[in-house]
Amino acid sequence: MFIRNHTEDDYPLFVQWWESWGWQPIPYMFLPKNSVVVCDDEGNPVCAVFLYLTDTPIIWAENYISCKKSKDRKICIEEMTKSIASKAKELGGVAVMSTLKSAAMGRRLEKGGFQKTDSNMTNYILGV
Predict the structure, then answer these.
(1) H or E segment and range at residue 13
(2) Which of 1, 35, 80, 121 to pair with 99, CA 20 to 30 A apart?
(3) Which long-range contacts (CB under 8 A, 24 or more apart) does 98-101 make?
(4) In the chain, what are the domain boundaries?
(5) How far apart are CA 112 and CA 90, in angstroms?
(6) What percentage of the chain carries pLDDT values higher than 90?
(7) How many CB atoms neighbour CB 88 within 10 A?
(8) 20-54: buried (b, 16+ CB within 10 Å) or exposed (e) per residue?
(9) 52: which residues sit within 8 A by CB, 6+ positions away?
(10) pTM surpassing 0.85?
């Protein structure tokens, strides 16, 4: 298993994953250049999270996605949650924030050291 940043070539795979979960794919132009992609021992991506930089030392970890069919999915997601902090530090962050819908992913983040701060939130977006 190894960790790397995503490339544009990964995007069609991520779209397949989002669609397999019944989610709307995130347009590529909305993905940041920084991410944590965990690959299995054969080099196949298994899961990913995207790290959005701000003009503060807070980094947002968003758009978690994984391959439903991978036998290594659980262990790769655990590795991804551990790797978020080190990647954020590398990028100059001092805190990582995340918004989730999945309770299971929330439990994984809590195992990885994240603390739950809010609940029952609704996200809004405005195109400009």
Answers:
(1) helix 11-20
(2) 1
(3) 98/60, 98/61, 98/62, 99/60, 99/62, 99/123, 100/64
(4) 2-111
(5) 18
(6) 75
(7) 22
(8) eeeeebbeeeebeebbbbbbbeeeebbbbbbbbbe
(9) 32, 34, 59, 60, 61, 62
(10) yes
Vertex 46 angle, CA 86 and 123, to 5°: 70
Residues 11 and 117: their CA atoms lie apart, in Å, by: 31
pLDDT per residue as tens digits for the range 95-127: 999 988 888 888 888 888 888 988 887 778 777
Helix or strand or coil: residue 91?
A: coil
On the CB side of 60, CA atoms within 13 Å amount to 12
Confidence of residue 73 (pLDDT cuts 50, 70, 90): very high
